[in-house]
Amino acid sequence: MDWLDEANRWLPLASFLAPGMLIIGGLAIKGKLATKDDLNRLSAERTASDTAFKERLDKLEGHWGDRVGAVEKASEKRMAAVEATCAAVQAEIRHLPDQDALGELRDRIAGVEANVKGLSAGIDGLREVLERIERPLDLLMKHHLKGD
Q1: How far is CA 104 from the centre of its chain?
Q2: pLDDT for 120-147, tens place per residue?
Q3: How far is CA 77 from CA 71, 82, 85, 86, 137, in A?
Q4: How far apart are CA 30 and CA 12, in angstroms?
Q5: Over the stretch 4-13, which tens digit does the pLDDT of each residue have?
Q6: pLDDT recorded at residue 148
Q7: Number of domain units in the chain
Q8: Is residue 118, in this structure, part of any structural domain at all?
């Protein structure tokens, strides 16, 4: 119990010095704490800073508000142009033929195609006739031009 004896021997001195140390520490801390004047000064500085910030924010809001307004107007004009274009496209689409009309057109085109094939065959026949006539006609022309 050697260390207990040492502790008992130094305990009266420690109990005498402890309150003094606490008082010195408290005074040191009190010197570091803010006073009412410090708090009032900081509050005034903060109020001034807040006021300056609000003024800058109001200027920015005014500036950006004008820009946003201009962008909104431009967007409205563009949207009106898009709507007009869309309406024109819709009007054109309404005039396009539907499925039934396209089927009818397909049938008519098939009929015209058949007529063209028939005409092509007739023209081919006429071509053959003209080719048969061309040679004798050419000989007659030459004979006539020579005067024989």
Answers
A1: 44
A2: 888 888 888 888 888 888 888 888 888 7
A3: 10, 9, 12, 14, 76
A4: 28
A5: 888 788 888 8
A6: 63
A7: 1
A8: yes
